[in-house]
Amino acid sequence: MRVLVGGGSGFIGHELMKLLKVKGHEVTIISRQPGLGRITWTDLESVGLPVCDAVVNLAGENILNPLRRWNKSYRSDVFNSRLKTTKTITHSITSTQTPPHCWILITGLACYRANTETLYTEDSESTTFDLWSQLVKEWEEAGRLSENAAIHTKQVVIRSGVVLGRGGGAIKQMLTPFWLGLGGTLGSGNQPFPWIHVSDLAGIIAHSLDPAHIPASSQPQVFHGVAPALNTNREFTQELGHVLKRPTLLPVPELLLRATLGHERAAILTQGQRAVPKRTLESGFQFQYPDLTSALRQIITR
Ligand SMILES: NC(=O)c1ccc[n+]([C@@H]2O[C@H](COP(=O)([O-])OP(=O)(O)OC[C@H]3O[C@@H](n4cnc5c(N)ncnc54)[C@H](OP(=O)(O)O)[C@@H]3O)[C@@H](O)[C@H]2O)c1
Q1: Which residues line ligand 1 (CB under 6 A)?
Q2: Number of domains in the chain
Q3: Which of 41, 116, 267, 287 is the most exposed place for a label (fewest CB within 10 A)?
Q4: pLDDT tens-digit readout, 130-168
């Protein structure tokens, strides 16, 4: 299969590229930078979609870059990098004479109100109530194909939790303070912590490429990219400390997170959704790392 991956040069993309190549697929990255095995977003806009079987979009400005102050310009980079790349792909799929059979967009769980009680499945209603839910709404709308285009191309939206892996994402930023014994819960620690191992997220993307796993529909098939274990931030913190053999006695107060990251970004860390991968499992996907212990051991001791 020929697969085009927007943002394939990043953390999740790296793992996906490895998996797709092992499975014998041919992969081309869409990037801001030209290079071997790449096309640029400008190429895609000007020349159109190269002949391919599937397109995936992983492009997006890092939301939790600790080196960038949270302001209007950063906020607009976070939105534009996701909406513009997604719209460019949607437009290229709609315009081509040779549409791919599958279009996969990775978004997030922020379309569900964070609380400690409600259990969200892929059947739950997505709503708009704050900045992040607005982002997911606009992002998924940008990825929506017209009914005509959807006849040829199956659409998949994978709403992902926090992606855990050695090479990047949340763990990369946490390892140093945890190694130094400075790790602790974020805010109350009671908030749900929906997470997934990066190999499993890459696995769900690869699983979605198989037409047999996606019913024909004019609507996107939503999958939750979260491990089935429902954990809180406290459980995650304790397990990471346990695997690293380090204490986790220093909670990070919500006020400090708000002061350093801004209240909108702090909310990503101090709030979370209890989400389960109901449809992901029903579609036949098997998690390699369904629980925190196995996921963290693989990441830390590899
Ligand atoms: N990591 C997580 O925990 C997590 C959780 C839920 C959802 N997601 C979503 O999954 C996607 C991939 O996540 P990731 O962790 O792999 O991301 P990442 O490594 O931070 O970035 C992925 C790629 O996006 C491209 N990119 C970065 N800034 C951009 C900009 N301003 N404009 C256009 N492209 C830009 C870069 O590719 P080039 O430099 O080659 O252009 C980069 O390699 C993102 O959309 C993210 O929101 C991630």
Answers
A1: 7, 9-13, 31-33, 58-62, 77, 81-82, 85, 106, 108, 160, 162-163, 168-170
A2: 1
A3: 116
A4: 999 999 999 999 999 999 999 999 999 999 999 999 989
